[in-house]
Amino acid sequence: MFDVLMYLFETYIHNEAEMNVDQDRLTDDLAEAGFHRADINNALNWLEKLADLQEGETPSHLMETDPLALRVYTDEEANRLDVSCRGFLLFLEQIKVLNFDTREMVIDRVMALDTDDFDLEDLKWVVLMVLFNIPGYESAYQQMEELLFEVNEGYLH
User: CA torsion sign, 138 to 144 to 147 to 148?
Assistant: First the structure.
């Protein structure tokens, strides 16, 4: 399913006219590209739930909290999001790419993926997908895009 999401994001992101394709045609196009129908349906459902979150239909378990509160991850979340992923989410909050709501959207969408193999690079793509259509988050999206495509020639310590 994650491969379908990546393909959709990379293929259609720069051509919004293509994003208005009906779901049946899109499903057929993805099947012709070699994706399994079950993965296509799961990916499209994932995107629909993301759209719901972005429109403010926040799940009841995502309550507003004090901005100084510490996010405690469940065992399931900690298993999916390793230390580097959790550290990266905290970093994104500190540099104001993510806030409470967008962080929770990211975590919600990560947990909805049907994969056991998830790493920091995958997380960066999920963050980018979450930020892509949120009005007013253009600068956060641009910052995240720079972080994703940044080529590190080495670390300075």
Answer: negative
In which residue are the tokens 């720079």 written? 146
Instruction: Give pLDDT tens digits for 30-86.
Output: 999 999 999 999 999 998 898 888 777 544 444 455 666 788 999 999 999 999 999
Residue 156 within any structural domain of the chain:
no
In a domain, 66, yes or no: no
Total domains in the fold of the chain: 1
CA 31 – CA 39 distance, rounded (Å):
10
State how far the Cα of 8 lies from the Cα of 15, in Å rounded to an integer: 11
DSSP string for residues in 61-108? T-----TTPPP---HHHHHHS-HHHHHHHHHHHHTTS--HHHHHHHHH
The pTM score is 0.78
Distance of CA 106 to the CA centre of its chain: 5
- Domain span holding position 24: 2-61+72-149
